[in-house]
UniProtKB/TrEMBL annotation:
InterPro entries (alphabetical): Cu_polyphenol_OxRdtase, Cu_polyphenol_OxRdtase_sf, Cytotoxic_necrot_fac-like_cat
Organism: uncultured spirochete
Entry keyword Nucleotide-binding: no
Gene Ontology MF annotations: copper ion binding; hydrolase activity; S-methyl-5-thioadenosine phosphorylase activity
Family to which the UniProt record says this protein belongs: Belongs to the purine nucleoside phosphorylase YfiH/LACC1 family.
Classification via Pfam families: Cu-oxidase_4 (PF02578)
Stated name of the protein: Purine nucleoside phosphorylase
Top-level taxonomic group: Bacteria
Reactions that this protein is recorded to catalyse: adenosine + phosphate = alpha-D-ribose 1-phosphate + adenine; inosine + phosphate = alpha-D-ribose 1-phosphate + hypoxanthine; adenosine + H2O + H(+) = inosine + NH4(+); S-methyl-5'-thioadenosine + phosphate = 5-(methylsulfanyl)-alpha-D-ribose 1-phosphate + adenine
Alphabetized UniProt keyword annotations: Hydrolase, Metal-binding, Transferase, Zinc
Amino acid sequence: MAQQQFCSNKEGAMHIEFSFPVKSDIKPRAILSLKDAGDMTYKPKSESPSRLAFFDRFGIEPTRIAGIELKHSRNVAFVESIQELSHACAANRDGFDGIITTNPWLVPSITVADCMPIWLFCKECGAFGVLHSGWKGTGILKTAVDGMTNRYRCNPNDISVIFGPAIGSCCYLVDEKRARAFKNEFGSQAVDEHMRNGTRVFYLDLLAANLAIAEKIGIGSFFASGSCTSCDGRFGSYRREGASSFTRMIALCIFGNAEAENRQRSM
């Protein structure tokens, strides 16, 4: 399939699917819901009708979904069951913004609405998952890859990454203090700085920052969507829709039932 494909039904475009840029007989699907699929806010003890309907599109039982309350951190949960994830969340007050596993029955998930979803898959050890990377959490990619290296003995060169849609440098206007801090940590390419009507303005480039991280840590292959969630009305966007009415999208990393069974037999 194409590396990026919008998928629609009679109600409109409901999700976008990405393909990991790696040769592998069995690899997970990277899925992002779109605005027309409805709000995908995560609640630990219940699932909304819009979330249940979305899971049903892919034949996913809700009990397979590994979800987290996002904290805009750089912390990643490395877990092999829903129970282990629950224990990890209870033990870590700072929370998590990413989930990595080798269990094909788990479906790691996060929500986004301008922040960047990042999917990962190691073709050798089979570890996979998804991260939530906003301006505060930029750098979570390194946390994830370091953890995969230490826990699963992954080689970064065997890890494939998908950088999903996020607010672009065309729209991500920030104050100078935030821009300077971001530039100091991630380099000049991570901030677009120029004059507008006699005033110096600053725009963050989340994609450029994450690409620099990927290059530095030696990621083997990647695909970058490059779509701006604020510009494109098909996406949910905090900036475009406003704080009181924005649409949270859900990012899933999925092995189908048959693929999960095949992977379990080969593990």
